[in-house]
Amino acid sequence: MKNVTDSFVSLGHWPSAGSFGFNTDILATNPINLSVVLGVLIYFGKGVLTDLLDNRKQRILSTIRNSEELRRSAIEQLEKARDRLRKVETEADEYRVNGYSEIEREKVNLINATSDSLERLENYKNETLRFEQQRAINQVRQQVFQQALEGALGTLNTCLNSELHFRTISANIGILGTMEEITN
Q1: How far apart (Å, rounded) are the C-alpha atoms in residues 25 and 128?
Q2: Cβ burial 146-171 (10 Å sphere, 16+ → b, else e)
Q3: Rounded to an integer, what distance in angstroms lies between the CA atom of residue 145 and that of residue 151?
Q4: Cα–Cα distance, 30 to 9 (Å, whole number)
Q5: pTM score > 0.85 for this model?
C-alpha cells in the first residue's frame, strides 16, 4: 500500500526535465499497482456494476413498456375520436340535408299558404264587387221605379177623371175577385 500512496504523492511532484519522453521503469510508473487496483475494482465492483446496469435496463424496459401502453392507449383514443368525428360529421351532414329539405318544405308550405290566402282574398274581393254592383243596380232600379211610379201617378192624376178612376178600381177589384175564386 505504501507504493500506491507513494505513487499518488509523487504525482504532485514532477521533476523538471528538459524533454518529454516515456519512462520505462516499471516500478516507477506503477502499472502493477494500477492493474491490481483495476482487478480489485472489477472483481468487487462487477456485482454492483451489474446490479446498476440491470436496474437501469429494467427501468428502460419499464419505460419502453409504459410508452408502448401509452402509445396503444393514445392510438385507441385517436381511433375513438376519429369514429366520433365521423359520426358527428355524418350527423351534421344529415342535419344539414334535413335542414335544407325542411327549409324547402317550409318555403313550399309558405308559398302555398300565401297563394291560398291570395286566392281567398281575390274571391272575397270579387264577391264584394258583385255585391256592391248588385246593390248599386238595385238602388238604380229602385230609383228608376220610384221615378216611373211618380211619373205614372202624375200622368194618371192629370189624365184620370173620377169616372175613369172608378172604372179602373172596379176592374182591378173584379180581377182580384176572379183570382180568389180560382185559388179556392
Answers
A1: 140
A2: eeeeeeeeeeeeeeeeeeeeeeeeee
A3: 9
A4: 12
A5: no
Other C-beta atoms closer than 10 Å to the C-beta of 27 total 10
Q: In 10 A of CB 57, how many CB atoms?
A: 10
Backbone angles phi, psi at 161, to 5 degrees: -105, 180
Mean pLDDT of successive 10-residue segments in the chain (184 residues)? 48 53 68 80 82 92 94 95 94 86 88 92 93 93 89 76 80 86 77
The label of the residue with cell 342535419 reads: 95
Query: Which residues touch 7 (CB under 8 Å, ≥6 apart)?
Result: 30, 33
Burial (CB count <10 Å: 0-12, 13-18, 19+), residue 84: exposed
Do the beta carbons of residue 9 and residue 33 sit within 8 Å?
A: no
Distance CA 174, CA 160 (A): 19
Q: What's the number of CA atoms in the CB half-sphere (13 Å) around residue 76? A: 6
Question: What radius of gyration, in Å, describes the C-alpha atoms of the chain?
Answer: 66
Cα separation, 128 vs 87, in Å, equals: 59
29 Cβ partners below 8 Å, 6+ apart?
A: 23
